[in-house]
UniProtKB/TrEMBL annotation:
Pfam families on file: WD40
Lineage of source species: Eukaryota, Metazoa, Ecdysozoa, Arthropoda, Chelicerata
Entry keyword Glycosyltransferase: no
Protein name as annotated: Uncharacterized protein
GO cellular component, one term: Cul4-RING E3 ubiquitin ligase complex
WD repeats (start-end): 13-54
Origin superkingdom: Eukaryota
The species this protein was found in: Ornithodoros erraticus (European soft tick)
Keyword Iron-sulfur included in the entry's annotation: no
UniProt cross-references to PROSITE patterns, sorted A to Z: WD_REPEATS_2 (PS50082), WD_REPEATS_REGION (PS50294)
Amino acid sequence: MLSEANPKPVGVLAGHRNGITYIDSKGDGRYLITNSKDQTIKLWDMRAFSQKSAVEATKRAVDCQTWDYRWQRVPKKLLEHQNNLHGDTSLMTYYGHTVLQTLIRCHFSPEATTGQQYIYTGCASGRVVMYDVLTGSIQCCQLQV
């Protein structure tokens, strides 16, 4: 996070095990979501920054990655290792979509029609995956072409 008055980082949100592919703000100045090559989306409260130990744990996890989403499927051990990193301050972690060969985005659903109750993202399987923000339950939609 950057302060506009003093453009130096004022805090860090650490917890993904691989690079971030997209960030979307809820538009309320409080919540944002991040989509990552670690096959998760995380919901963050921008007021709850990570401790230095969490930043270090995240750096170690990213440094340990030996696969590349651009041409390799996610190793099963990564999918099975779905516990949060030490010090992860995210409010929720959503599992169930796959990032492969492209940088997949994530967004909050529209305020006017859903009250931003859902997070939606693409998936390498061709589906649109929708997560309930509060429960993390998945609703998938197969696109018809």
